[in-house]
């Protein structure tokens, strides 16, 4: 047994050395990288980072290493951009070089490089261009989508009235309402709030969001090869993703059976027509896989951030009743009144309400690290050279919380978006949807949803907290992926 034991030890040492050298080669890279903390092979800087609050760790590192620095998440090299100047210089001034999508292992596992959000190269260009054009054709930013949002807001108001002034968690009705809007655009129709298939996909969406924010879910992005063999919530996330795909494929089958090539009803119809037009092109990106991925991208993006923002907005208004109870209500009553639905044309006449919404988005900071980018080629950035394919974190929180633009940035203050005359003030630092060529496809839709749904709720109800406003906790639950408010309840009183 002695020779066998020695051989085993020798092999283990050889494997360890190979892993060490492989990781070190990945981490050493090429060119003059930005500075950063010393990284260990295999694990990178994981032990030096607070994985439960990565944005805080990133902020602390920026103090030491400056606005551009390098970290390693496992063996994945990441260049971090911290502050408005660095983010703007990269995403806008060098937009082409920074237009790649960075690696996010769990997303790669589930999405496999398809769809709009996590694709790259020609696939990304074609699918993004098609999505933008199609959304515009179906009225994104135009009256037809505005009418869909107004209709859904009325369904939501009816649902809130049925609470009969009893306490409830607003997360569920807000998520259902926002999701129904993107469903009407993607699938062609809204769902009844009690529809079991609708409730199933909403529940799966919420479950996946929790799994993505979980510790094991975040560790998967650092150590995907290892985590593939470890049971845990990340495995359920992959199973749920397969359930989503089956749901979309079922809807696609229904659309094919009733498709009119001359009259697309929704995004799926438009994509199927494009597939038919490119049937002879063997290199076409318009295939069933990308149809499913793109549909899911729009559904998830159109459900998550807007509903979370609205949930946080109601919590903020409970915390600061003087904002809702006097200023916003007064503006709604004066501009909109009680007898018609709010419309987007009202927003320019409601500077205070608009400022409140912008401040909610700024402080909510839903995606603090931004969705990862990547450089598309070896890139000269300031005095550094960033190798092709390097993942980039444009830290949106560092821009949204910049104290030079927003005095006392941690405090909620609508005055951040108002000038001395009370008129709305735009800011180049307001980038909750990111910036540059990878800016959120649904930015226009999200802005409409947040304004119309929130003003419709406040037009019809007064918000009532269950505890003294000074005891309301507006601290966000932070993760590598997203921020979210803590669960809470409220009552709504008809006005």
TrEMBL record:
Any GO BP annotation: xenobiotic metabolic process
UniProt superkingdom: Eukaryota
Enzyme Commission number(s) of this protein: 1.14.14.1
Alphabetized InterPro entries for the sequence: Cyt_P450, Cyt_P450_CS, Cyt_P450_E_grp-I, Cyt_P450_E_grp-I_CYP2A-like, Cyt_P450_sf, Cytochrome_P450_fam2
Primary residence: endoplasmic reticulum
Reaction catalyzed: an organic molecule + reduced [NADPH--hemoprotein reductase] + O2 = an alcohol + oxidized [NADPH--hemoprotein reductase] + H2O + H(+)
Annotated keywords: Endoplasmic reticulum, Heme, Iron, Membrane, Metal-binding, Microsome, Monooxygenase, Oxidoreductase, Transmembrane, Transmembrane helix
Cofactor field: heme
Transmembrane portions of the chain: 6-24
UniProt similarity note: Belongs to the cytochrome P450 family.
Its job: Cytochromes P450 are a group of heme-thiolate monooxygenases. In liver microsomes, this enzyme is involved in an NADPH-dependent electron transport pathway. It oxidizes a variety of structurally unrelated compounds, including steroids, fatty acids, and xenobiotics.
Protein name: unspecific monooxygenase
